[in-house]
Specification:
It contains seven helices and no strands. The protein is mostly helical. The longest helix is centred in the N-terminal third of the chain and has 26 residues, at 2-27. The relative contact order is 0.09.
Length: 154
């Protein structure tokens, strides 16, 4: 049962990730990038506040801050993931075609795997490497088939 839940969670994540890209592309037709980022962060803050207040989620942030355990690492993650990543993604989606942005976003898992192999000295199995290559080829093939050479919004 646990394995099925893991696969469902992975599929759910992929669907949410894909739709967030699609919604970002559509929302940028009506909003400036920083307006969209404000609404994304405000919505996420409200949702997390509700989840914490209702007991659906628990946080150990106060413990971490009080003990200063991992505070520097937390600050780095807070700067890089939501702020730098979402800002770069939003401007990149705005300034590129859908197919080019799809290729770049589709390459993120391969880049993370490569970075972890380099920075953390993690070893990728042959199966993982083959899966990443097939995934990247699929993304590139879809982009090429849809005429991914153009730029601008599309």
């Amino acid at each position: 049962m646990g394995s099925a839940v893991n696969y469902l969670a992975g599929v759910g994540y992929a669907v949410i990730f894909g739709f967030s890209f699609l919604f970002t592309k559509s929302a940028l037709d009506n909003l400036a990038p920083f307006e969209l980022l404000f609404f994304r962060f405000a919505l996420a803050t409200a949702a997390m506040g509700i989840a914490l207040a209702s007991g659906l989620a628990k946080s150990r942030l106060r413990e971490k801050i009080a003990s200063r355990q991992g505070l520097r690492d937390l600050a780095i993650v807070c700067l890089c993931q939501p702020i730098l990543y979402f800002t770069a993604e939003t401007f990149g989606v705005r300034d590129s075609s859908s197919s080019v942005a799809g290729v770049v976003i589709g390459a993120i898992p391969a880049c993370v795997a490569g970075a972890s192999a380099w920075a953390l000295k993690e070893r990728l199995s042959v199966r993982q490497t083959a899966s990443l290559i097939v995934s990247m080829l699929g993304v590139a093939l879809i982009a090429l088939a849809s005429g991914g050479a153009g730029s601008g919004s599309g």
